[in-house]
Design brief:
Order of helices and strands: EHHHHHEHHEHEHEEH
CATH architecture of the largest domain: 3-Layer(aba) Sandwich
Distance between the termini: 6 Å
Number of strands: 6
Number of helices: 10
Bound molecules: xylulose-1,5-bisphosphate, magnesium ion
């Protein structure tokens, strides 16, 4: 069945953003005088914890550091401000195939949505950097991590996106890069295409409709194999 909506994860799916997140975390830690440095190896492990505030809390727990929720929120707010500034200053490219698939959807009046763990501010930073446009100009619906009670792998953010789209899960197709994201989308009842990213390659993607290196050769609207999948 041809989907009536495409729902995209952001981090790792629309673009490889995690190195920018990691740099923003490390800059925020340095500015706060904490002396923490999240290497790629540490970050790979910590990425299993979705959400920046939750990630910092787990890190503090591991080190026996007592930061209050308010202190973690303030540290994370500084990280977000740094991420937004880095996004505006730097060059971040969409992953292959993303722009074309979005254009194909637009041409067919198929809705475009986002279901992300990160904040709306970071989604806006990405759409500004990539398209010079607001999130609302690029997507019909945006559901963000700070709007739901439980982050991925909980299905909440996908359910919120579907509610705002006013569509059942059977009418939409999700795009993810991580096992946590796949679990969230599947639990919401969505068929899900997975394109592993630099930090999620090698994860278990059982339950995905398809696992592809990227979206370059894929169309949810093509005839033949892709049409059978979509
Ligand atoms: C990505 C994440 C996010 C980012 C940081 O998850 O887990 O937490 O790493 O974002 P997904 P914040 O791609 O599965 O949605 O610091 O803004 O929380
Ligand atoms: Mg992701």
């Amino acid at each position: 069945m041809r989907p009536a909506a495409l729902i995209f994860d952001v981090d790792g799916t629309l673009a490889e953003t995690e190195e920018l997140h990691r740099a923003a975390f490390n800059d925020a830690f340095a500015a706060a005088g904490l002396g923490w440095e999240w290497t790629q190896g540490i970050y790979r492990r910590l990425l299993k914890v979705t959400g920046g505030k939750e990630r910092i809390a787990v890190w503090c727990g591991e080190r026996g550091v007592a930061l209050s929720p308010a202190e973690i929120a303030a540290l994370h707010a500084d990280k977000t401000a740094r991420y937004v500034a880095m996004m505006a200053a730097g060059r971040i490219a969409l992953r292959p195939g993303v722009a074309r698939i979005m254009a194909e959807a637009r041409a067919r009046s198929v809705a475009l949505a986002i279901a992300t763990t990160t904040s709306r501010a970071n989604v806006e930073a990405l759409t500004r950097a990539v398209w010079g446009a607001t999130g609302a100009e690029m997507f019909d619906v945006i559901a963000a991590g700070d709007e739901v009670a439980a982050k991925k792998p909980a299905p909440d953010v996908y359910r919120l996106a579907l509610e705002r789209l006013a569509l059942p899960p059977s009418a939409a197709l999700a795009f993810e890069d991580s096992r946590n994201g796949l679990l969230a989308a599947r639990e919401a009842g969505l068929r899900t295409i997975v394109t592993p990213s630099i930090y999620t390659a090698g994860e278990d993607f059982t339950g995905a409709l398809s696992v592809l290196p990227d979206l370059a050769g894929y169309s949810p609207f093509a005839t033949g194999k892709a049409a059978a999948m979509g």
